[in-house]
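Input/output pair, single chain:
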Amino acid sequence: EFLNSVSKTESMGLYTSALTCLVLLTATPSSDAFSVLPSNRPVFTSVHSKSALNAIGVLARKAKEAEVRSYVEGGVEEDVLAKYEAMKGGAPESNDPGPVQTSLTKRKGNICIISEYKKKFESAGFIDEILEPNIISSTFREFGASAVSVLADERVGGCTYDDIKIIVKEQSNSKGEVPGPLPVISSDVIVDEIQIARAAAAGAEAYFVTMSVVGPDKIQEFVKLGSAIGMETIVNVSGKDEAQKAVDMGARMICISGADVNAKVEAKEGVSAPGDEQVCFIASIGARDDKSLAEVEEVWQLRDKGFQGAFVSDCLYKSGNDSTEHPGAIIRSMKAKSSVKWASVKARGGKGEGAKEYLGDIMM
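Output:
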């Protein structure tokens, strides 16, 4: 679906329409199940049916149309228009992994962390303890994240494309250093190519798009358009069928949500690309409604099951800026070489093997 084309006067030369999507749904809490809504916002829910996910996609797409129409009619920035025109101009396609996929694909036995920056949570609104983007950006880098995602939707995550620009600028300050700059990813759900152009103009190198929101045909179109301006595509899926469709449409980075570790692993098994092309599988880690930080153990398990990356959002902020369980400590613990066979990550005061250690004490 497209909005009606807007005149040059109305849109500073924009020749096509734009859509974005927003999900403002209230999920039913559950202690043993969760899924990822198209906003990439991990929430607890007891609903996992295909019809429910499709309904979410429709609502997400509809909810954003008016917002993006307002953006287009208010005047699209010249740098965004330039990216859009370059995207439409096309470019030779390459089957080689891009820099973002390369940074998220390490040798077996390692897992890469995509850390999402956001300022707002559905259950709590804006969080005072969340650091400003230019500060937490360096924390993500210094504690071992492989990429930074920004939930560039003000209504859902409290961030805008300006926050992408701030983090891109901060990351660029580490050029020539170790660790160096991290790639920045836009996690505003994409439903139209103008959003890809907007993310690229802000300095992002990749973007998330959700299968249940746009469908396979749009995925194929977006992959081609994004590649024309060096933007890599990460497709959010909820099962094996969607994962294989995404790969068939040209995507080579797949972010899988699921009720538990087994569901994510099942969605990954058997999914393949033609020839010897690599597919990077990323697990979306939902936040539990407790302080146990079992999410760290989940990442260890998924690493051992062959996932190359983990997308981590709300669980990074469960303890605020606590000296031992701050976002950086959680990231480094997720990357640790430990295993649920030998240790159990617990919050302070927990019981069991490994409970005597704070999260930061198992960082390797």
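The two ends are 48 Å apart (CA to CA). The CA atoms of residues 127 and 234 lie 28 Å apart.
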